[in-house]
Amino acid sequence: MKIVITGSLGHISKPLTEKLLAKGHIITVISSKHDKQKEIEKLGAKAAIGSVENSAFLTETFRGADAVYTMLPHPNFADPNLDPMTFARTISNNFSRAIQDSGVKRVVHLSSIGAHLDQGTGLILMHHQAENTLGGLPGVNITFMRPVGFYYNLFSFVGGIKASGIIASNYGADDRIPWAAPADIATSIAEEIESPLAGQKIRYVASEELTCNETARILGEAINKPDLKWKLITDEQLKTIYENFGMPKVIIKGIVEMQSCMHKGPFYDDYYLQKPILGKTKMKDFALEFAAIFNQG
Fold this sequence. Notes:
Layout: E1 2-5, H1 13-22, E2 26-31, H2 37-43, E3 46-49, H3 55-62, E4 67-71, H4 84-102, E5 106-110, H5 125-135, E6 141-147, E7 149-150, H6 158-164, E8 167-169, E9 176-180, H7 182-194, E10 200-205, E11 208-211, H8 212-222, E12 230-232, H9 235-244, H10 249-264, H11 269-273, H12 283-294
Parallel strand pairs: 1-2, 1-4, 2-3, 4-5, 5-6, 6-10, 7-9, 8-12
Antiparallel strand pairs: 9-11
Helix pairs in contact: 1-7, 3-4, 4-5, 8-12, 9-10
């Protein structure tokens, strides 16, 4: 198959590219960075250097492909002028136009858990927007991948642990949270790309389900802090922490609202209705990576 992959050589796109190349597929990887071209070509894939904000570039790159893998790139949350919903709308509209104009009939799109909800999920509404846009494409067979929270999101707590000796957020303690490894997500995406489909499909991806206290214990043991706790704080307390970091207000609102829904909202309801088989990579495996980052410097 001729397959186009967006996301450059990111956490998911690189292992996905490697998996599909190993199976003999012809892969084109889209990247906005010229310095990624040699690395992409070294893997055995073709590099298409350009921006997903350019629908003409996407159309030309998608043309002739048997399948495409799409994803919203990570926006610059430090940009005070960022409007997350406008960003998501622009990119998903570009994908939509390129898919239609190029004639692609098979798409696998990286969405997110919580994307089924149309309110109350903060930044996850970006993925709801993308699903609505791509889901309206006539004659396109599309799988929406909805992974749960990525293990590497836990790296954001490294500074707090070093400063205060705890993990603190507006979700936590005994909240049961599913986590996913990029490698397991990539495996699931590869399976979907190679699988025939008529219509649309939702597929959740998770690697392990743990309470936040269980997660803290596993990470704590890896960093020689066996008594590490995950403290549940209020939305206002978390908002104040982010304000002190100088984070843009729209991003603070989006993160706080998203995590509040994880704590006490319907965020995981649809996941448990369509609960997937858990992947191979467990929190103990990730804890080794976490410890390596924690112990740097």
